Structure formats: C-alpha cells, structure tokens
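Sanity check

After download, print the first record. It should look like this:
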Amino acid sequence: MSAPSRSTASETWPSLPLEAWADTYATLHLWTQIVGKIRHTLSPQLAHCWSDTLYVTARGLTTSPIPFGTRVFEIDFDFVEHALEVRTAEGAVERVALQPQSVAAFYRLVFAALDRLRIDARIVKKPNEVAEPVPFDEDERHASYDREYAHRFWRVLVQADRVFKVFRARFVGKASPVHYFWGAPDLAVTRFSGRVAPEHPGGIPNLPDEVTRDAYSHEVSSCGWWPGGGAIGHAAFYAYAYPEPDGFAKARVEPGAAFYSPALREFLLPYDAVRVSRSPDETLLAFLQSTYEAAANLGMWDRKALERPQSP
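Expected structure tokens:
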C-alpha cells in the first residue's frame, strides 16, 4: 500500500477515508473507552451519561476535570504532539506516548501513570458497544496508530464541534453540551422537547439497557458526526428523533446528498458531501436545521418556546 497523502493546514475539512485508517480508528476507539471509563468511575453521575463524555479541545480530546476525593485531575489526548497527558491540580504531569502499541500496553501505561500520581481508578475492563469485546488488559490485537490520520480525525472533530455549537446556540430549551461519546464513538449534540419519552427497548450490543433507557428518558432530536463502520463505509453526519414521529423517514431534508437509513433509523449525510461543498458550514447547518425541524414539527414540539428568535 502506498503511503497516505499528507493533508495540509489549508484543508479546513480534511479527507478521512475509513479504509485508510480503519486499524488506527479501532485502536483509538478502545483507548478513548479506557479514558472515558476513568471519568465515568470517579465522576458524580449525570443523567443521559453526560458525566462520561469527552470534549474537543484545541489539541485533541479531554475528560475535563475529574474529582478524586479533594483532589482534581484531567486526562487529555494531544493529537498535535501525539501524547496522552494526565494533569493534577497540584501541578503534576504524567505523559504516555501515542504510538503503535496494543490496547493492553496502553492500559498498563495509563494506570501506571495514575499510580504514580496516587490516583486509584478501577474501571470495568470490558469495552462497550463493540462486537466480540476483549478486556482492555488482554487486547494485544488492536495496536495501530497512524499519526497523520489521528491528526486528521481530531481536525474533523474541531470543525464539527465548532458548527454544532452554532446550531446548539439557536435553542433555549434543554440541550446537551457538544460532547464525544466514546461508546459508538460519535460527537453529538441533543435537543429535548421537555416531554417524557416511552421506555426505550434497549438491545444495543454490549451496552446495559438501563444506560440506553436513561439516555432516552425524554423526547430528543439528536445529531452528530460518526467516523463510520459496518454497513456505512464512510464518515457521516447523522440526525434522528426518539421517539421517531410518524412521517419522519419521508421528511424532506437538506442538502440533496442526505438520505434516511431504515437500518439505522436516522438521516445520514456523508462527510465528504460537506467537506467538498462550496460552504461546508452552511451545508452542515442546513442538514442540522432541516432534520431538527422535521422532528420538531412532526413531533409537535413547542418550537416558539424552545427556540431562540433568529435575526432577519
């Protein structure tokens, strides 16, 4: 296989073909689960798993501050210098290189760093939302790390995060932060109608039903970005409603490249359709707004009370 073409700083929305970085993606997915589970174990639990997520930064992804007794620390993925940093409020820092290494090796290095910082974090070692999960400390199979594609992945997250925040600001009802769920994984932002939803049926592989039911305890219109996988062999933006109102699948949304996936029960917009468009921001915002309007109108949300008036 030939070496990957190098992206440039002028590419605001870099290409990210799934086949070019699938092995790195699989490994990095599990690394982020290890770090996310540390936050989950030690943080006060919020509804909808909001206390478990990671957040986009100017260099990568962060847990944000995590309490440990009266102490505080945070863990950051740095996709510029390609390092994981664990920092405490006392000023101590431990670093783990991001480089080709197994999930098991990464797990040992991270927990050795926590031990040196006198932080005791014990996580469930079984990955979530993956087929045939192998405990982190036993996984020697996933061991890829391509710096170029890890960097591109982060740059896509930066751009998606930026536009999602513009979209989120249009809503004055309950809305999630823009955050990275390490289970799927995906970057997501969710709006709530304010009404209780019917109990979710659950059934997501390797994810407890009580977690899913907490996530969907209330009506939502949710959107996000996902690197792809399975039947969807490309990165994509997505949008769905729970519960899905009648007619949602047939709603007319923008842009023309968007389509409804009956298997996933959500609208998808290929990432490349945004990346190569004349105005990626406008293209993405059109998708986010039109899919939300389909969910809110068909679901009879009180849009006047929930939305911020738009400037003419």
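If your output differs, re-run the checksum step. Summary of this record's structure: Residues 170 and 308 are 5 Å apart (CA to CA).
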